[in-house]
Design brief:
The protein is an alpha+beta fold. The protein contains 6 helices and 14 strands. This is p-hydroxybenzoic acid efflux subunit AaeA. Keywords: Signal. One of its GO terms (cellular component) is efflux pump complex.
């Protein structure tokens, strides 16, 4: 009789744990989805990628027309590299300085008037200032080149990560506006994210960094397979309308063998175990 009673308790406990076990479903998605956008409006000159291409961080995806800027850059470079005016003003400065020294020497001998000495000094100072102004103008031209280089860079759309191009929204010759700057979409598939919305009880059992098991459907339809994942994020707030908590799980996918968009399931074994009583010494213990 005692054995029968114990067996009934275990069966009832197992049934209770099964009924209380919670299962949560989600879909895999890329760990990053980046909508590349043009920082300026303009006509598309070149598109360097197509759907399915793998791109590297900082690689050029698209280029907007920049003929006018390139011409402006040539002018700015010519002004920055030109030294003719600087050299001529340097010669004039040296001449005026020599004349000032001669006039001041003659002034000491009483051979020239003070007014003439003041005029020679002013001419030398003006010549030196003109030379300095030419040097500053050259520096401004160099800065102008850098400014145009920055504007030319803004006409390029570069990849921000190592990823896969899944969409290209424009072709050469089309116009990209500031109201619709999105030109391409790149995803990172080295990791896949599963976003589960679990009960508060389950969320309290896990924290970021823990390893969990996720059941993933097979692409050939032959059931599921078990994969190891790592908890990336557990929301600190329970959604008031649903009573659910967001929990993100990352699955490593370095070879890109797992497709994004597959259905996945998370069963909380801790929830099941927490409801299974143990039987020791003729009594049940939790």
């Amino acid at each position: 009789m005692k054995f029968t009673f114990t067996l009934l308790i275990l069966i009832a406990a197992t049934s209770t744990s099964t009924s209380l076990a919670e299962s949560f479903e989600a879909f895999t998605e890329p760990v990053q989805t980046i909508e590349l956008s043009a920082s300026e409006s303009g006509r598309v000159a070149d598109v360097f990628v197509k759907r399915g291409d793998r791109v590297q961080a900082d690689s050029v995806i698209l280029r907007l027309d920049s003929i006018v800027l390139e011409a402006s850059r040539l002018i700015a470079v010519q002004e920055a590299e030109s030294t003719t005016q600087i050299e001529s003003l340097a010669i004039e400065r040296d001449i005026k300085q020599n004349r000032r020294e001669q006039v001041l020497e003659l002034l000491g001998k009483g051979a020239v008037s003070p007014e003439e000495a003041k005029r020679a000094t002013a001419d030398a100072d003006i010549a030196a200032l003109n030379h300095d102004a030419a040097l500053e103008k050259q520096k401004l031209a160099m800065l102008k080149v850098k400014q145009i280089d920055g504007q030319l860079e803004q006409r390029l759309v570069r990849g921000q990560v190592n990823g896969l191009v899944i969409d290209v929204l424009c072709e050469a010759g089309e116009y990209v506006s500031s109201s619709h700057p999105h030109v391409a979409t790149v995803v990172v598939l080295d990791q896949l994210r599963c976003t589960f919305f679990v009960s508060t009880e389950v969320a309290d059992l896990y924290e970021a960094g823990e390893t969990v098991d996720v059941m993933m459907e097979r692409t050939n339809g032959a059931g599921e397979r078990r994969l190891r994942g790592k908890v990336e994020y557990v929301a600190a707030v329970t959604q008031a309308d649903s009573g659910r908590v967001r929990m993100d799980v990352l699955i490593e996918n370095p070879q890109h063998k797992i497709r994004s968009g597959l259905r996945c399931r998370f069963d909380s074994p801790r929830t099941q175990l927490s409801h299974v009583p143990s039987y020791q010494g003729g009594s049940t213990r939790r």
